[in-house]
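so im writing up the methods section and need the Lipoprotein record in one place, dumping it here so i stop losing it
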Amino acid sequence: MEEQEKEEAERVKKRPPLEFSSLDKARDWIRAHKTELVLGTVVIVAGTAFILVTGGSGALLLVPLAL
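--- predicted struct ---
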């Protein structure tokens, strides 16, 4: 199982960030593609970077990426 997790982590690193012109477009795309998403995915909305995480209730959240 650990090897699968490493392989998935490598695939995530190689993926380009998702880019959207507005938060509404990002939200709609995320809702339509929930099963394809990986936690930690970088999402760019109008030039601002966010990271995809889950909340305490399991909800998907876009959190501003602070460097």
